[in-house]
Amino acid sequence: MSAINPTLAAAPPRSLPANAFAAIAKHRVLATVLFFAIFPWLMPYQSLAINILIYGLFAVGFNLLFGYTGLLSFGHAAFLGVGAYTAGILIAQYQMPWWAAVPAAIVAGCVVALVMGLLAIRTRGIYFAMVTLALSQCVYFLIYQLPASGGENGLRGVNVAEVSLFGLKLNLLDPLQKYYFVFAFVALALWLLSRILASPFGGAIEAVRENEARARACGFDIERTKLLAFVLSAAFCALAGALNAIHLSSVPIETLHYATSGMVVMLCLLGGMGTYFGPFVGAALFLLIQDLASGWTEHWQLLVGAVFVFVVLFFPNGVWGTLLQKVSHDR
Amino acid sequence: MTADAIIETRAVSKRFGGFKALTDVSVKIRPGVLTSIIGPNGAGKSTYFNLLSGSFAPSAGQIFFMGRDITGLRPHEFAHTGIAKSFQITNLFPNFTAIENVRIALQAHVSRYGLWRRRSALAGLSEQAVALLETVGLAQRATHLVRELAHGQQRALEIAVALAAKPRLLLMDEPTAGMSPEETKVMMGLIRRLVEERTVVLVEHKMKMVMDISERLVVLHHGELIAEGTPDDIRANDLVKRVYLGQGRH
Amino acid sequence: MELTFDLVALQLFTGLALGAIYVLLAVGLSLIFGMLTVVNFAHGAFFMVGAYVGLFAAEKTGSFWLALVIAPMVVAAFGMACERWLIRPLYGRGIDYPLLLTFGLSYMLVEGVRIVWGKSGLPFDTPELLQGATNLGFADFPTYRLFVIAVVAVLLFVLWLLIERTSFGLIVRAGARDPVIVRVLGVDVSRVWLLVFGVGTGIAALAGVLSAPLQGVSPEMGTSVLTVAFVVTVVGGMGSLMGAVVAGLLVGVVESMAVLIFPEAAKVSMFVIMAAVLLIRPQGLFGRAGLMA
Q: Any residues with CB less than 8 A from the CB of B128 and at least 6 apart, and which?
């Protein structure tokens, strides 16, 4: 995984695709936002486009921790779920407006991440995947038992029909307008992500990924760095959860399942860890495979598992990551 | 207490489970004096070095740095006291370029948690990084990835990264490991230049090099301090000669 | 609920039987990690496959006893094939990759079982000989649970002998300490990896067959048990067999006793234990501080 370092201009790439990619990389936020602005017209139906945005955001949050910091968590469903249930309960049962519920969901996700992180980061790296899995199962059990969550049936009635802010009105019953509602949040999130990655902290987390022992010897407080990365990662995932709750008008209990944690790992790996755009590519691929394969057979999960195994063995950099590598080698 | 020792260990011991790696080692290392720690294999040199650099804490005893008790400080805090170590096995950031390696090490002392500003805009870091690369002779290879560097160049980069902490005390763990005679000569020249501005402590196996370059030697054997003195003192020391007899010459 | 001595003793005993199964799982996981440095995310899936193969074997042969032997062997063979062809290519690539692969593998195994045996759970009858209760002098205990505890105890003893007293075990222990040295000494480490993975997955399969009469079999049974296996491993300390035993029994007993006293908390009780261990002794009860990162 090569770090796309915005600070250092390497020898100018000679081939056209490489030049194009380098230019895009420099203005990655703009490029991604523009792409997603026209995205609904590239997809067969808007609901798929919205799902790709939301799952992509979920994967972006996970990628911050896994691709950039190098920490493999198998418990990220907890943050998606906490975000979704927090926003959902606040909207459905407390009639809170969306512009308060969504930030509340993010805060809730961060708090849960803080607690989980304080427990998980104390351990040696190899435990991290196991501890995060176990803790997220704990969150699942706790939320399942909450009367407000609706248990097995999930949460219903998260109805936000219309949003208005500063005079601009969006009717969320129209899929296209709903897309742009979600898009606004994702664009903001992507901008923030870019700032984080380009900041000193962004350098610190990559140092942790590259060589934790060396980073510690250089003077970085590794535990604090990891914890902050964990909490930031959860913030993005909680936002994705809240948006999903509004999108579906409900929160299924599966949001908190281990399978959801596993899915986001797959999304990230399929797309390309440690790349800016990879998570969206992974989300699109996964959703497309799921869409197509579930049309053929109800056992599409076998195909997904096989694809994942194949990618781990032969294309560990994912689709987008491999593409980027090929382009940057064409110098 | 400050003037006569830059770093001092008082009766430090270190156990790993049932195994006692170091017993009661009391050493004062004087500022500006190039000191080497030597001893046969298994003498505890690496363990002692790890104590000096803060990789782990002693099981018993204390460590003082410039008069301040630093026993038990966490590893990353050591880097901020003014102690830096270059590693025996090249321990760099593999997918970064040479200059990125040094920059990130410099950054650790400037702004660790800044989330908002751009790290590319951090004042002067790039210039300082280039200067450090020049010190170790790597300025031409600044934009090369670590894996594109020859072994000797990677060892040099190791030192540049350690120097980024602007240490008063530089610990060098076998800096010439795996180097050809030419590369070793270059490294020795670099070490002599480095001693001008800071205290350097070495662990080395190449006896000729150690005798050539050191002003003082500390000899460990089976985790204990058996001798200390100038190279001439050590050459004449019977106990040291016995300990090294049969170890083979290097 | 009135807490009579009989009731408490029964729950305690149930906890031991449950814990015994957890111990088996954790031991297999620990062996695989200790020797191969692989966190086997398919461990629950192998447990589940073992249960199904056991069911199949019991139906075909009419004998639970045969199933108890056949299932672990079949699954171990399959496990070894997975190690040789799927996991081994990933060594040296970083500790996350084998983990990810086993995770993908678990997906495939679960779905594969669904294809062959259907999505809903199937019952598994307790063999006649082990039905009913046995009187141990001071109380009656379910015979089957007694059997489970006995089998696990014997197996642990055999494992202990294998690891502490044979040259194979010596290699496993040495490999766990320093894989490089073992290779340098000329031992064919890849053969050992193969066998250890086989033994680890075989034990998981055995645990699956043993647990089948207690809860039936279902494609999802592996997922919930994976969490427990991880919790037990974290509590006991990775790479420590003693830790697996103590932690497994502890988790099983606490869970069973919690059902008596505070049923809502029963499922969460193991996480409370894990959290406590993480706060007080992060390397696990029997883990060594500074073990593998």
A: B106, B164
Interatomic CA distance for residues C253 and A81, integer angstroms: 30
- In degrees rounded to 5, what are phi and psi of residue C278? -60, -35
Q: Would you state the structure tokens that stand for residue B164, as one six-digit string?
A: 């980024």
Task: Report the SS3 class of residue A251.
Answer: strand
pLDDT one-digit tens code per residue, B199-248: 999 998 888 888 888 999 999 988 889 889 998 888 888 888 887 764 44
Split into its structural domains, chain A has a count of: 1
Does some domain include residue A67? yes
Report how far apart the first and last C-alpha atoms of chain B are (Å, whole number): 37
Per-residue 3-state assignment (H helix, E strand, C coil) for B151-202: HHHHHHHHHHHHHCCCCCEEEEECCCCCCCHHHHHHHHHHHHHHHCCCEEEE
**Beta carbons of B193 and B200 less than 8 angstroms apart:** no
Under 8 Å CB pairs connecting chains A and C tally to 115
Cα A228 to Cα A290: distance, rounded to the nearest angstrom: 33
Distance in Å, alpha carbon of A121 to nearest chain C alpha carbon? 9
Q: Token pair 């230019």 is at which residue?
A: A23
In chain A, which residues have their Cβ closer than 8 Å to the Cβ of C247?
none
Residue A186 maps to a domain = yes
Yes or no, beta carbons of A198 and B119 under 8 Å apart? yes
Rounded CA gap, C254 and C18, in Å?
10
Distance CA A28, CA A22 (A): 10
Radius of gyration (C-alpha) of chain B in whole angstroms: 18
Q: Would you state the torsion angle of the CA atoms of residues C219, C222, C227, C228, taken in this order, to the nearest 10 degrees?
A: 130
The ipTM of this complex is 0.87
| Residue A331 to residues A27, A188, B97, Cα–Cα distance (Å) | 21, 34, 17
B153 dihedral zone (left: phi>0; alpha: psi -120 to 50; beta)? alpha
Closest-CA distance, C283 to chain A, in angstroms, reads 7
**C-beta neighbour count of B119 within 10 angstroms:** 23
- Helix (H), strand (E) at residue C141: strand C140-142
Q: Does residue A268 sit within a domain?
A: yes
Residue type, A273: M
pTM over 0.80: yes
Q: Considering all CA atoms of chain B, what is the largest pairwise distance in Å, rounded to the nearest integer?
A: 62
Considering chain A, what is the average pLDDT of its residues?
88
Please name the chains neighbouring A, where neighbouring means 3+ C-beta pairs under 8 angstroms.
B, C
Residue A71 lies in a domain: yes
Q: Secondary structure of B106-144 in the HEC alphabet?
A: HHCCCCCCCCCCCHHHCCCHHHHHHHHHHHCCCHHHCCC
Answer yes or no: are the C-beta atoms of A134 and C227 closer than 8 Å.
yes
pLDDT tens across A211-244, in order? 998 999 898 999 999 999 999 999 999 999 999 9
Q: State how far the Cα of C190 lies from the Cα of A240, in Å rounded to an integer.
A: 44
- Identify which of B78, B95, B111 has the shortest CB distance to residue A210: B95
In the three-class reduction of DSSP (H, G, I as helix; E, B as strand; rest coil), residue A295 is classed as helix
